[in-house]
Amino acid sequence: MMPNSTTNMTKWETVIGLEIHTQLKTKSKLFAGTDTNYGAQPNTQVSLLEAAIPGTLPVFNEKVLRYAIRFGLAVDAKIIAKESRFDRKNYFYPDSPKAYQITQLNHPIVEHGKLVIETENGEEKTIRINRAHIEEDAGKSIHDKYVQFSAIDLNRCGTPLIEIVSEPDLSSAKEAVAYMRGIHTIVTHLGICDGNLQEGSFRCDANVSVRPVGQKELGTRTELKNINSFRFVEKAINVEIKRQIKILEAGGKITQETRLYDAEKNETRPMRSKEEANDYRYFPDPDLLPVVIDQAYIDHEKQFIPEFPAQKIKRYTQQLGIKADDATIIAYDKDLADFFDDTLKLLQKAQVKTATNMLLGEFSALLNANDAKITENHLNAKQFAGLLESLAEGVISHKIAKTVLEKMWDTSKQASEIIQQEGLAQVSDSSELEAMV
């Protein structure tokens, strides 16, 4: 139930830590060669290992290691482990036939990173990242397809994840969303995760507690499990904060437990009592050797670290004179920014403003009207730059440029070809004008 409006929020402060599960964009699973394609028929992408057939052994997917290192570099991690190890997390649940999950408890690949977010009052705040460790995903339980029983789809079982664990440095639901968006931006721009929240490739658990203002000791926390929307993260945390405060102000105690957020009722409800590490009986996986790398291996991955949006915005505004709002729109859309940068390489600096205006104006309108993505290759950067060159040279007017752009979209022809074939060039030579008269 929603707490009543008499709750005094000013007497309490919130402490939040997030655990973000990022499904890695690999073609095969963490310890088997099985495909990881989303949307396949249930239980058609399951190896003997994931089905827990006796005698099968895990084989580590090196691509996962490289992706984890890139994440560590991107968050300026103090530790990218030269030796990391895998452990078994033991539990019984139908979506995990082995009855354990392979993860990293004591020797994670990444430790002590950081992410700077912007708070509600516009100030910068550094959020510490405790660790990022490699682990395998579980299968999927389906409870709403059949009336009398639940179904299990093991296709997701064994899919590689990195779980990114923050320190409890977040103080509000809005800060939690800002941090989550920041991590989302990093993993999608790195290209290690598609970031699709609806398909579950980027999801979040939120650990939430409250305490009286000024108290140093942390309150009892609850964990909100598997939230797969930025909007729901904010709503779930806010409703849980109010629930906890209401209980404490009534003289009650908070139970440490895992809770689920019900979006329809806008409330959280108990799922299970919160386990501690010893409940899972962790022990080193006897089938997997330690992963040992050297500094040269880590240094090799630095070449894959891209220019992130904040850096792009700074370059666009300070070096190219693009308006901050326009720079932000472009920079946070990776595909749009890649297209824009490829276009700029073919243009003079004086054409940047026109390129920006047409990209965010006529070109974006064309994409929206056709429900298309810029990566679908209706037009490439060279074609777009050719159109802008014709405009800059006065061959066509801005009005005609829009017409040419639409014809380029439909035919994939070069701007110069369309202008010549359809006689769209402006006549600026006085002798030609006199001859026409």
Explain what you see:
- The chain is an alpha+beta fold.
- The chain has two domains: 9-302, no CATH class; 307-436, no CATH class.
- It is built from twelve helices and 16 strands.
- It has helices spanning 62-74, 173-190, 230-249, 295-301, 309-320, 324-331, 334-344, 352-369, 381-392, 398-411, 415-421, 430-436, and strands at residues 12-23, 79-80, 83-84, 87-90, 100-103, 110-118, 124-136, 140-142, 151-153, 160-166, 202-212, 222-227, 257-262, 267-273, 283-284, 291-292.
- The strands form four sheets. It has a nine-stranded mixed beta sheet.
- α3 links the parallel β12 (222-227) and β13.
- α2 (173-190) packs antiparallel against α3 (230-249), α5 (309-320) packs antiparallel against α6 and α7 packs across α9 (381-392).
- It is globular.
- It starts with 11 loop residues before the first strand and ends with a helix.
- Mean pLDDT is 93; it is low at 1-5.
Oligomer: single chain
H/E series: EHEEEEEEEEEHEEHEEEEHHHHHHHHH
Q: Compute the average pLDDT.
A: 93
| Helix/strand structural class | alpha+beta
The side-by-side strand order for the widest beta sheet comes to 2-6-7-10-1-11-12-13-14
Helix content percent band:
25-40%
**Spatial extent as radius of gyration:** 27 Å
Total separate domains: 2
Main sheet specs:
9 strands, mixed
Low-confidence stretches: 1-5
Strand content: 15-25%
Global morphology: globular
Distance between the termini: 81 Å
Give the total of beta strands: 16
Q: How many separate helices?
A: 12
